[in-house]
Amino acid sequence: MRPLAHSGTRAIPSIRHQITRIRGQFSNSSNSSTISSSMSLTRPLRLLLLGAPGSGKGTQTSRLLAKFPSIHALSSGDILRSQVALGTQLGKEASQYINNGGLVPDTTMVSLITDQLKQSQWLNNHTSWTLDGFPRTAQQAVALDEVLDKSGVGINLVVELDVDQKVILDRIEARWIHAASNRIYNLDYNPPKVPFKDDVTGEPLVKRKDDTAEVFQKRLDTYNDQLRGLKAFYKEKGVLHTVAGNTSDIIYPKLEELILEKFS
Ligand code: ATP
Ligand code: MG
Hints:
The chain has 9 helices and 7 strands. The chain is α/β, with parallel strands linked by helices. It has a domain at 46-170 and 209-263: Rossmann fold (3-Layer(aba) Sandwich). The strands form 2 sheets. A 5-stranded parallel β-sheet has the order 2-3-1-4-7, with helices on both faces. It has a two-stranded antiparallel sheet with strand order 5-6. Magnesium ion (MG) binds next to helix 2.
């Protein structure tokens, strides 16, 4: 398929809006202990979370933002889904790839995300941020690295969330989301207060179109295909770590400890 035309960042919801949405996702988390005391970092964190679809990257990000208010976050999947919801040209073209469990072309993703990083003025040595879902191929990692290098910054922590893929498949069947906020629910271990309704707005929850068994398997396969190259790239840079566990409650404390050890 041909690469998508980049529709320009004007059509992209502002980063502040994205951040608010991601912070808002935390409000339905079952683990309230993490919001009890916020912490600060002494060194800027530029984190990439790697993990299979459904491994909990969004959940971990929300918890990090609640604990470390100075961290900003960007999720490529959330940005793409906003584009789809807005009906932009980019959204229309991206949805073909998303609905099939394939990847949006590298050139599109690189300009979409690096434009956002530049516009948000995050490319300096005092802003902490975390990326979820980008880079997702070795080519995207190389291209991002070139952009970051020009600003004298680089990804300084990559954490692979290692979750048993059999566990993930069960989890996805039970995953429902609130489309407008991207709040994530799991009917088994993080259910909404009222069945199938968002806790904050009361609006109906929906399934992601790409969370069907067939498309999800394709997404997992795509992730596994790309993982080796991505990990090799960041291992070479000495920033790669792995945190294993089959629930977000097991993974989160390990992730937080790693960040505190290196950046506070
Ligand atoms: P989950 O949100 O459950 O962790 P995921 O990581 O597969 O799963 P998203 O990151 O939300 O899901 O991405 C959804 C879809 O958006 C992907 O399947 C892909 O089609 C597209 N996409 C997101 N980020 C990228 C990227 N960096 N490069 C190419 N395509 C992307
Ligand atoms: Mg996600």
